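Handoff note, outgoing to incoming analyst
You'll be picking up this chain. Sequence as last confirmed:
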Amino acid sequence: MTDLAFAGAAELARRIKNKEVGCVELLTYYLERVDRFNPDLNAIVVDIRDEALARAREADQALAAGQDWGPLHGVPMTVKESYDVTGTPTTWGVLELKDSIAEKDALSISRLRGAGAVIFGKTNVPYMLSDFQSYNDIYGTTNNPWDLERAPGGSSGGSAASLAAGMTGLEMGSDIGGSIRNPAHFCGVFGHKPTWLLLPPRGHATRGVLSPSDISVIGPLARAAADLAVAVDICAGPDEIAARGLTLDLPRLSKSPDELKVAVWQDDDMAVVDDTVAARVAAVADALAQAGAEVDDDARPVEPEHAHTVYQCLLQATMSARLPAERYDAIAKRVEALDPDDTSRDAKVQRSQVARFREWTANNEQRTHMRWQWHAFFERFDVLVAPIMSTSAILHDHRPFGDRTLTVNGKPEPYFNQVFWAGLASGANLPATVIPTGLDEKGLPIGVQLIGPEYGDLVTIGIAEFLEQQGFSFRPPPGY
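Most recent structure output, in case you need it:
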């Protein structure tokens, strides 16, 4: 049954419906793999297997009675710890929230269950979902299945590690600064950061919070590109309030590969990427060119430094708003001590953490201008191919953020510089799909992101499906 460990979710559902494997049988198989591999990985940190086994038995009975629950009928899956799942803790890695138990499912969890999914656990995150690594004082550190000495990414690190190790059939993560895309890249799986608010995030929040967060989105990770589309189809669409007047009709990829117009952003001084990463971006572009696509290496939709500064200002305002009062107050005191004459980009970003609404609105206005620039760009191009991170998976490093660096082409670079690549899409509300592209000389996966226009989610996923057929596909790490 080893092939089941690394099959896609849609393939697992097909086998269940064809009675090639039972729902309880499949869940039990995954649970046995969890018991075998999770002690070393520490990826799945909340276990609700008894509830899941009962649900799987119901799924078998329903199938025997001729009932089809939907596209994920009986498929075992896990979700990021930051989602509300009834009766489980939703802590976001914050020790003070360790006893915060969800009283009902997040909307997306309800939709996944309605489509037949069997949810059996939750996966690890960093403190407040704010790192490229996944560790916290409640659940400990998650390791990368490609190398236990390395991080699986963050903040959906447990999600990607669980998928890569063949311990779950599908995952749901979230992304504000690459938190789906970075782990997908580090662990060699597919991931999709949707258009902002395309998937209603209600229930992906700390207790009592109903307002959607700026920039942040929820979205799927998977071992097959088609599974991303399945999850988007299930979880997307208006919530109960918006459904009074809105319906969803997302475009799908309608062009053949030789009709595509592809822009490539291979590297940038704002966040230098390792040569091994740049080579994989070039490989994806070459594959599209060989299929007949028109490829442009020079087209740029926005000015890099301006786009990054606006994104950082909005991101920092959002992230600081999530912090406990005492931590926010400490930031405010530090900002107050800045030299009033300091107008550098770093000073501007720091001030944005405690910005007045007038200042936030000015940054939002700049973002809106950039959204229209991207819109005009995507009237000429179908997709932008770019890196998502500067390097492959990094060694565990739990020092203070200011002490951390990355080694890029043999030189140290600031740890958070690489958020530039995530910000290209996040800063303008755009969808981006990460695909695995192969391994570097260390034997570590490298992912590349495909950025599309707002609501072009199924288009970028469709291009990912084509590239998967060309060999840019998931491969399991050794030993699993």
